[in-house]
């Protein structure tokens, strides 16, 4: 093993499996004994992350398309200049959609499509691979908006088989080496 861990404990056959034990020794960002149900320690994780975030962008409740898209564009460009990435994992959440009570913003369906296009144009312009994951959004209409966004990205050539970074790898090229170690 490359490093030792105390993540797992041996449970004798005479005992039932343990769901939670304060004796777990899980290290996450320097915090010992972190467990998903330990809200106090997750609060410390959130505090740590707030300090670690270098580009904090705050939005007021009810923020609309123009302000939101402007902040996305400005801050994404600056972040990519400050820290040029090898790959971008883009969390394309839809909880910013107008009417989402948890997200609290007022971004239109067209604004979400435009946001995704903006992110892809900027990242693709730097020749950086991008992985888009969808998340958030608690309305029935979000699936349609996500589909519209993906169709828009495809129609613009920002994703799909005609994308320049994808052209270098044809359909006969394996995504993984023949044997993964």
UniProtKB/TrEMBL annotation:
A Gene Ontology molecular function term of the record: histone deacetylase activity
Pfam families assigned: Hist_deacetyl
Organism, as annotated: Equus asinus
Any GO BP: epigenetic regulation of gene expression
Histone deacetylase domain boundaries: 39-151
A GO CC term assigned to this protein in UniProt: histone deacetylase complex
InterPro entries in the record: His_deacetylse_dom, His_deacetylse_dom_sf, Ureohydrolase_dom_sf
UniProt cross-references to PANTHER family, sorted A to Z: HISTONE DEACETYLASE 11, HISTONE DEACETYLASE HDAC1-RELATED
SUPFAM superfamilies: Arginase/deacetylase
Superkingdom classification of source: Eukaryota
Name of the featured protein: Histone deacetylase 11
Gene3D superfamilies, alphabetized: Histone deacetylase domain
């Amino acid at each position: 093993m490359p490093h030792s861990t105390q993540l797992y404990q041996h449970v004798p056959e005479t005992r039932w499996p343990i769901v939670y034990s304060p004796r777990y020794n899980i290290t996450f960002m320097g915090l010992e004994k972190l467990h998903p149900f330990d809200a106090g320690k997750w609060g410390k994780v959130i505090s740590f992350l707030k300090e670690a975030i270098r580009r904090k962008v705050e939005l007021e409740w009810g923020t609309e398309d123009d302000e939101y898209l402007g902040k996305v564009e400005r801050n994404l460009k600056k972040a990519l200049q400050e820290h040029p990435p090898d790959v971008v994992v883009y969390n394309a959440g839809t909880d910013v959609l107008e009417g989402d009570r948890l997200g609290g913003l007022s971004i239109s369906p067209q604004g979400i499509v435009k946001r995704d296009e903006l992110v892809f144009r900027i990242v693709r312009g730097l020749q950086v691979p991008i992985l888009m994951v969808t998340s958030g959004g608690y309305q029935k209409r979000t699936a349609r908006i996500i589909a519209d966004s993906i169709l828009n990205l495809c129609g613009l050539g920002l994703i799909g088989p005609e994308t320049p970074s994808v052209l270098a790898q044809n359909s006969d090229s394996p995504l993984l080496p023949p044997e993964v170690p």
